[in-house]
Specification:
This protein has 487 residues and is of the alpha/beta class. The chain folds into three domains: 100 residues, Orthogonal Bundle (Arc Repressor Mutant, subunit A), CATH 1.10.10; 129 residues, Aspartate Aminotransferase, domain 1; 222 residues, Aspartate Aminotransferase, domain 2. Helix content is 43%, strand content 14%. The chain contains 18 helices and 16 strands. It has an eight-stranded mixed β-sheet with strand order 4-11-10-9-8-5-6-7, sandwiched between helices. A four-stranded antiparallel β-sheet has the order 12-13-16-15. A two-stranded antiparallel sheet has the order 1-2. Helix 1 packs across helix 3, helix 16 runs parallel beside helix 18 and helix 17 packs across helix 18. Bound molecules: pyridoxal-5'-phosphate (PLP). The site of pyridoxal-5'-phosphate has 13 residues, from helix 9. InterPro entries: Aminotransferase_I/II_large, HTH_trans_reg/aminotransferase, PyrdxlP-dep_Trfase, PyrdxlP-dep_Trfase_major, PyrdxlP-dep_Trfase_small, Tscrpt_reg_HTH_GntR, WH-like_DNA-bd_sf, WH_DNA-bd_sf.
Length: 487
């Protein structure tokens, strides 16, 4: 294809920029140069895909990218045309926003995650086995509504306490006590979900070049945040009963690791839990080497039988654990309420940084979260949630056994949101995801979590129970198609 200045475009698969973005950039340059004037049609997706020798889905993504920047418009039946508004008319006078957008030090989200998100935006009927989020009916919506109707909101409306709303911290302290964690209000920082705790820790307590150890596979691999902070990442392989504590000492000798990030209960993505014996060993080794542990614990209260092992924080005698919790997996991710329990010095430092970033959290969700935790209905909500999650897991397992028989191996764990599955055949993550998207189902490829190809993470929290069979049937068809394409 001829691009700007009549140069022939060549796909560069070695570039870091994904292919669809390379194509979007080429088209943007062609529009800016006047090759495609305002209002003119762009080639059809099929034609352009053939011309460039790429999948049609890549062109669909490239056009979606241009649409989101306002440069082109798409109408059903009349294809994609160059926008007539000021973006399309004089793009050469506008700053190069793409260059700015790529220039900052914060890395963009992983291409697989962006692909999954955009596929869900463009496909209203997608069965979502990718999101680590509860389905709508599992949120405590009725309970929240009755709190809002029955209890007057009379809180002061100025900036709240830098550590988070004092009353919510009182409720959190009581809530954590029931889980065996002694956390006075002064040791709690209320955060915008667990994610903000992880962000503040990487930004404020660590420096570029520091080595940290994370589980392998791990949710943390899905966070470019760790790379953005310039951290060196060391891997602790996860076994059926969690990491091997001796690996911590080895990594310390080899890399002088400065912090450990662990998700000991119903780990994301594997679903495994660190055994009790290993918990004691991890704490002993970390204490001996004086390595702080960040315990990310969003799932312990999803334990189907309420039998999660005590958290590292509950067992911690030496103040070496920074404990992170959240309402996202047990109540509502949209409330954006999480918490960090840490020594006062750390809490003050992080609260000060957050104050500089955004002057703290909004009072409304904090007020609501405090009332929710204190409500009589919350324990019942948790009970209902656990039962529903167990039933959904069972239904997904039934469907997997039916549609995959022996082709997909997995071990179920009594809590969490995910089944971590391994295909018996070698498959390409990319191919399987694209085939699945075409069939209206999404999952997260294992490589997002740092694993080799062939692993997939299926979440049963989000799809409705009645979607489970259809989702797994579509996935099985996608796997067959991927294997057929391979041979
Ligand atoms: C292990 C783990 N930690 C942290 C988070 C972030 O959750 P939130 O910021 O919504 O509390 C997630 C979300 O998927 C997670 O799985």
């Amino acid at each position: 294809m001829n691009g700007v200045y009549g140069m022939t475009w060549k796909l560069d698969r070695h570039l870091k920029t994904p292919v669809y973005l390379q194509i979007a950039e080429l088209l943007e340059r062609s529009i800016a140069s006047g090759e495609y004037p305002p209002g003119s049609p762009l080639p059809s997706e099929r034609r352009l895909a053939e011309q460039l020798g790429v999948n049609r889905s890549t062109i669909v993504q490239a056009y979606a990218e241009l649409r989101s920047s306002g440069l082109v418009e798409s109408k059903v039946g009349s294809g994609t045309t160059v926008s007539r508004n000021k973006w399309g008319v004089s793009p050469s006078h506008t700053p190069n926003w793409r260059q700015y957008a790529e220039g900052g030090s914060f890395l963009p989200n992983l291409p697989f995650m962006r692909r999954i998100r955009s596929s869900m935006l463009h496909h209203g009927q997608m069965i979502d086995m990718a999101s680590g989020e509860l389905a709508e009916p599992l949120f405590p919506s009725g309970l929240l509504q009755s709190i809002m109707q029955e209890q007057p909101f009379t809180e002061p409306l100025g900036y709240d306490h830098p550590q988070g709303n004092p009353q919510l911290r009182v409720e959190l302290s009581a809530f954590l006590r029931k889980q065996g964690i002694a956390a006075p209000e002064a040791s709690i920082l209320v955060t915008s979900g667990s994610q903000q705790s992880l962000y503040l820790i990487t930004q404020c307590l660590l420096a570029p070049g520091d080595a940290v150890a994370i589980e392998d596979p791990s949710y943390c691999y899905s966070l470019p945040m760790f790379q953005s902070a310039g951290l060196r990442i060391c891997r602790l392989p996860v076994h059926h009963d969690g990491i091997d504590p001796d690996d911590i000492a080895r990594l310390y000798r080899e890399h002088r690791i400065r912090m450990l990030f662990l998700n000991p209960n119903y780990q994301n993505p594997t679903g495994t839990s660190l055994s009790m014996e290993k918990r004691q060993r991890v704490l002993a080794i970390a204490a001996e080497l004086r390595i702080p542990i960040v315990e990310d614990d969003p799932f312990s209260l999803t334990s189907f039988r309420n039998q999660a092992l005590p958290s590292l924080k509950a067992l911690d005698q030496e103040d070496i654990v920074l404990y992170i919790g959240s309402l996202s997996k047990i109540a509502a991710s949209g409330l954006r309420i999480g918490w960090l329990v840490a020594p006062q010095t750390v809490v003050s430092r992080l609260a000060d940084a957050r104050q500089q970033m955004d002057f703290g959290l909004s009072i409304l969700p904090q007020w609501l979260a405090g009332r929710l935790l204190a409500s009589e209905g919350f324990p019942l909500h948790l009970l209902t949630l656990r039962k529903a999650l167990e039933a959904k897991q069972q239904r997904m397992i039934g469907a997997l056994e039916h549609y995959f028989s022996e082709n997909l191996a997995f071990t179920a764990h009594p809590g969490g949101f995910n089944l971590w599955c391994k295909s018996k055949e070698n498959i390409s993550d990319h191919r399987l995801l694209e085939e699945s998207i075409q069939r209206g189902v999404v999952f997260v490829p294992g490589s997002v979590y740092g694993s080799e190809e062939g692993f997939i993470r299926l979440s049963y929290a989000r799809p409705e129970p009645e979607q489970m069979e259809s989702g797994i049937e579509r996935l099985a068809a996608a796997l067959r198609a991927s294997l057929a394409l391979k041979s």
